[in-house]
Amino acid sequence: xSNKPVLDHFQFCPSCGSQAISLIExxxxxxxxxxxxxxxxxxxxxxxxxxxxxxxxxxxxxxxEPSKGKYGIPGGFTxxxxxLEEVAVRETKEETNLDIHSVRFFASFPNTYTYRGVSYAVTxxxxxxxxxxxxxxxxxxxxVTGLHLVxxxxxxxxxxxxxxxxxxxxxxxxxx
Length: 176
What we know:
Blueprint: E1 4-5, E2 22-24, E3 28-30, E4 37-39, E5 43-50, E6 57-62, E7 71-72, E8 75-77, H1 84-96, E9 101-115, E10 118-130, E11 144-150, H2 163-175
Parallel strand pairs: 1-10, 5-10
Antiparallel strand pairs: 2-3, 3-4, 5-8, 6-7, 6-11, 9-10
């Protein structure tokens, strides 16, 4: 299965079934028969950059594709009606069993997330967060194969799961 952007998977109008649909500028699908229009906007994700007192970053070792075995941070996709800060808190709890606080926006970067042959446009948002303790930390079975505290500048670039994560780590290190 080849990796294709979401809109390239449309062959029929989702509203009337017409094959006369057009892909316009890679941004939307239009149907001249019923005037249906579907815009392809990026989805959002949020992650938490959690450092210990020594400046080590908490990373999750990904259990699944994409980027299985590489380092990510606790995070995930936004559910309908959810604020990005809530995503960072929820996903951190789910993936690590940690309760974070003092969640504040740090940066965002565009990304592409390819899953089961479909490439999705994503805006990844990153938040700095704190924990009172790492006691009780536990990797979420099936999603995370390991939790590690790493010195970010010593992690090889290819070990980071996503290009946007490489960029946010570089931004953090440059501003520190």
